[in-house]
Amino acid sequence: MAAVPVEEAIAALSTFSLEDEQPEVQGPAVLVSIERGATESPVEYSDVNAYRLSLSEDTKALNQLNTLIQEGKEMASVLYTYRSCVKALPQLPNSMKHSQADLYLETYQVLDLEMSRLREIQRWQASAASKLAADMQRFSRPERRINGPTVTHLWSMLKLLDVLVQLDHLKNAKASIPNDFSWYKRTFTQVSAQWQDTDSMREELDDLQIFLSTRWAILLNLHVEMFRVNNVEDILQILIVFAVESLELDFGILFPERHILLRVLPVLVVLATSSEKDSESLYKRVKINRLINIFKSDPVIPAFPDLHLSPAAILKELSMYFQKFSAQTRLLTLPAPHEIPPREAQEYPRHYLIVNHIGAIRAEHDDFTIRFASAMNQLLLLKSTDGADAEWCKEVKGNMYDMVIEGFQLLSKWTARIWEQCAWKFSRPCKDSVPSESNETSASYSDYEKVVRYNYSGEERRVLVELVSYIKSIGSMMLRCDTLVADALWETIHAEVQDFVQNTLATMLRTTFRKKKDLSRILSDMRTLSADWMANTSKPEGELQSSQHGGEESKTNLFYPRPVAPTAAQVHCLQFLIYEVVSGGNLRKPGGLFGNSGSEIPVNDLKQLETFFYKLSFFLHILDYPDIHSAQFRYVRLLKVATVSALTDLGFLWFREFYLESSRVIQFPIECSLPWMLADHVLESQNTGLLESVLIPFDIYNDSAQQALVVLKQRFLYDEIEAEVDHGFDIFVSKLSETIFTYYKSWAASELLDPSFLFALDNGEKYSVQPMKFSALFKMTRMKCKNLLRDLSIVDADLLGRTIDLRSLITERMNKVFRDNLEFLFDRFESQDLCAIVELDKLLDILKHAHELLSKDLSIDSFSLMLNEMQENTSPVSFSSRLASQIWSEMQNDFLPNFVLCNTTQRFIRSSKVPLVPVQKPSIPHAKPNFYCGTQDLNSAHQSFARLHSGFFGIPHMFSIVRLLGSRSLPWLIRALLDHISNKITTIEPMITGLQEALPKSIGLLPFDSGVAGCMRLVKEHLNWGAKSELKAEVLRGIKEIGSVLYWMGLLDIVLREVDTTRFMQTAPWLGLVPGVDGQILHHQDGGDSPIVNLFKSATTAIVSIPGCPNPTSFYTMSKQAEAADLLYKANMNTGSVLEYALAFTSAALDKYCSKWSAAPKTGFIDITTSKDFYRIYSGLQIGYLENSVQLSSNNHEVLGDSVAWGGCTIIYLLGQQLHFELFDFSYQVLNVAEVEAVSIAQMHKSPHFVQGWEALIEAMKKARRLNNHVFSMLKARCPLEDKTACAIKQSGAPLHRIKFENTVSAFETLPQKGV
Question: Could you tell me which Pfam families the record lists for this protein (predicted)?
């Protein structure tokens, strides 16, 4: 196979899109590595000898100090992470005292391993103090025999002294170390009784005991070593001057270096003042006010993550060991943090607390971000421009260099603020008062809770999250473009160095230093070691020609910038040589480095040397910046000083080793962890501005994991961090999902509120939902967590990380939350009556709308699928559902027995007179507001609507049932109700037979001459059912339930007709259907296809006719699918009436009892006196409950309602007994008698008080007759019988209810008028 040309391969690669669409909601995901940077020479400064500057002694000592610094940091890690072994020692019960010797031996072996580390620290500090003292003495001789110390050497001295100070502070602070040692000594005494030659071991043990028990033993030993042979006041004073000038200038140092200077300065002052010679000489070079100002401006200095140092406390404590220093009263009167006067104590929080600086920080962040992006755009434009102007090119790259320096300084300042605020918080714990958000007593608080958990207010947590996000975002922005700006930075550094050594120094050599041979030689050495003469020959020809026409006045060398940066050794030597020029070879001159008033160098030249000197210190930081990811630099990196990852490292916010020891606990709960506190605050506050920074606190865990593995080198710390991250991330995803769900639920509930309701309110804005930006989090498909390291023994290894799909996790949680919400809503409905169906429908609408809104951002399961799962209705052959079963259960157990019908309002209401049938219902479940409508205000608003429908059952409830059950479960419910009618008829049949048997053989018509009172007396005599009162009540309840079901079917029929009409209006134009005059559906085009079929056929024909049609099969398939849809929708158009079907079903159920309830007359004529048909039984029951209903003691109408009329009249009508009932009903006869009697009395001009006492009963009878007529009119309209006499109705068939009949006015809309 032929090889692909390189040009084509590159062109092909350029077509791939490598852009990462993920938003920056995390910090820089730099892998934990131990590479080496430019801030430390990769070849141990061995190339310095090549420059022949006589710095071999200095270089050798420098490398030795750097080795000691690294070893000391490892020792400090051992001390800081030391945890008591005594706590883990087992205690033997009395029954095992015989094994005490074995326990001592095992304990000794365990503790001996830990004590060996302490002995190693003891030996190392003695060696380090001796070497540091020897190094200082080497440069403190009156006569100068060697060059040095260089600036790099001074820094190494200060760093080693800082390590010794930290070791001493840790040794003093860790109480577990002497405790373990006492146990170790005790076990050694027990175990060594049988050993021989233990004297040397005992001496070593005594030395270790003295070392551990003596405070500041390391510094005391260092003092002895320093002044053992030769005084070192000069070098100590040089270090103090260097530290003071560096702190006051605060330009060329970053926060780690600044903290080093602050920690060692009080120790240096004590050591320099304790000299046997003139101890006051120090204050001649450095005014004491300068020291006091430094110590007062920083009363608290970060030392370790949860340990701080106080210069005032160090000075006071060391004054007890150094008697000469005790005379410095001005320094000793400085207050420690806990001694600061109240007035001054109020001033320090303004400096330390970030909340007082966040406004300026925010402005700095916004300004830098804009200018950095502008500089990057200019740089990209420069790279895409061929033949750019040299001056513009230099300006763009120089601007980029300045932006990187500014970025380093901002990151350093911001991270230092967090360090210093933490140190201040640790020094000022909260008061012992009980925090408002806690129910615990103050006595139960741990010290760590007082300095962390309860020491940060909500506002302080907010600004801390904001600042952390600024640090991480700037770090990410700078790391993303490191490879793009590398060449520009190197070229700028190269240009700065070459311009200084080739032009500035050349000018100085021709003017200032022309007659000073010694200084001229130094300047020449500077040019020799760093001038890039090759750059002059690399100039373009045009630039060379322009430089030749410059004349003799301009003798500056023009060079072509190259991306060749100086090495660490070159920078080291340049700083030394500048130091030599300025100091004249005498570092002991009064004044500072560049503040030497006695210098013979002109001010202008001195300023140029000073500027370049401090630029050199930043060159190494800049060179570290782009190389952090470079694969070509894979050296073992020992010190991480000024990289972006170092300046954005906030892992110290997690560590709490000192407080774990003082609190005597294994680990603190996650609520006390500051990283989790920040993440939790973002979720709880729901601050829109902070929400996109919600993942930023988890970068703190990444940083702390890196420190645990690389810096502290302790696997158990990493395991604890990983365990907390796992636990915290689970809680975080859960809380974040709940926040997202609450927001979308509130949003949906707000949109579904009635606009008229909001318009009528004065404070309607409280029901609006503030927008929250979750889109950035929803796009997080890859979130890098740096953990799961497999092998600590690998030195140059990347952490094996987990890539977490946050979007997927949120989606899983959302699916679960939606299902839980559905389960809760169904549980809530199941604990209430049927009237709560409207509330359920409304809450499900809100949940469904929230699902629709959330589905735009997340691929969650469909709502119908989740709803079917919760209703247990996922099987294709399952027609019942959880909701349908619950509705049927409610109707059977509560609705039908305990609700009564009000025919006028078309509503069922719960009867107050009915003895409630005991129904076992679970208690109403309660949940958080987000399971209802989201917020308390929205819950109240929607509950006010739900309460409007909670006291009755009517048309709104039926609409909710139809919407919720749908066409799948509704037929099952209808069938269950129809079966209930059939069962009720079967149940009351023997009861009616019993009532028939109790009737007299003959009951004649009521005589008109007896009046109302006589008629009622005759009715009571004929209906001798007094002994069958329970039987009567049961029959009435049965008829009432049958009537309730039939009326319920009528309401359902109204709703279904409205739904079908709406559906017909939506589909009819596409199917070519039009309504006929008589209500029948007509086809617009007889024999032709419907419009939708024609549309797809014509579209398919037009597309297929195109010659270039790629896939005509798909269009044919769509055309066939349109035909199938046409058939499917047309088949569902002619739907029947539910009420008509219910009446037909009831008629069929009555067929088997027709012979008993509607017997054919033997004579062929109407049987008037001896009939015991159903109408006669119902007539007796009706007049009985009407009479009872007018009694004050019992309102029987509230017990049975209007459902009895619906049930009784429907049975009478379907049995063909309507005319018989209207002729022979007892109440009708009484009304007739009352009318006749009223007319006769009116003719006699008598007072119409003849019916006194019967007015209420007669009025009730009239109402019953109007209701019966209304029911019969509805039945005639919906279920017309054949045009025959009633007694000739066929007994074997259902009523022929589907014959055509003229449309009549709906009986549900027009009721019979009073008096009809």
Answer: CYRIA-B_Rac1-bd (PF07159), FragX_IP (PF05994)
Give Cα 392 distance to the centre of its chain: 47
pTM of the model: 0.81
Burial of 1085 (0-12, 13-18, 19+ CB in 10 A): exposed
* Residues 93-124 pLDDT 10s: 666 666 777 888 888 888 889 899 999 999 99
**What secondary structure letter does DSSP report for 309?**
E
536 contacts 559 by C-beta, under 8 angstroms: yes
Q: At what angle do helices 311-319 and 255-273 cross, to 10 degrees?
A: 20
Cα–Cα distance for residue pair 699/473, rounded to 1 Å: 11
CA distance 482 to 196: 64
Q: What is the DSSP letter of 1202?
A: T
pLDDT tens-digit series, residues 486-532: 888 888 888 888 888 888 888 887 777 776 777 777 788 888 888 88
Cα 1281–chain centre separation: 68
Cis-peptide into 669, omega within 30 deg: no
| E strand or H helix that includes residue 908 | strand 907-910
- In this structure, are residues 1031 and 991 in contact, taking their beta carbons and an 8 Å threshold? yes
Nearest-angstrom CA–CA distance, 1270 and 1272:
6
Tell me which amino acid residue 1265 is.
R
- Cβ proximity of 722 and 784 under 8 Å: no
Query: Which tokens belong to 814?
Result: 């959302």
Cα-Cα-Cα-Cα dihedral sign, residues 849, 855, 858, 860: positive
Exposed e or buried b per residue across 557-567, where buried means at least 16 C-beta atoms within 10 angstroms of its C-beta: ebbbbbeebbb
Here the tokens at position 256 are 């780690």
Instruction: Please list, residue by residue across 95-119, b when 16 or more beta carbons sit within 10 angstroms of its beta carbon and e when fewer do.
Output: eeeeeeeebbeebbebbeebbeebb
Residue 944: its H or E element: helix 936-948
SS3 564: coil
Closest by Cα among 222, 217, 193 to 207: 217
Structural contact between residues 647 and 75, judged by C-beta atoms closer than 8 angstroms: no
User: Positive or negative CA dihedral for 982, 984, 990, 991?
Assistant: negative
Cβ neighbours for 1283, distance < 8 A, ≥ 6 positions apart: none
Element (H, E) at 636: none
1277-1314 confidence digits (pLDDT tens): 888 875 333 333 333 333 333 333 333 333 333 334 33
| Cα atoms in the Cβ-side hemisphere of radius 13 Å centred on 1116 | 7
Closest C-alpha to 522, from 497, 505, 498, 499: 505
The neighbour count for residue 129, using CB atoms within 10 Å, is 23
| Tokens (6 digits) for 631 | 């694969």
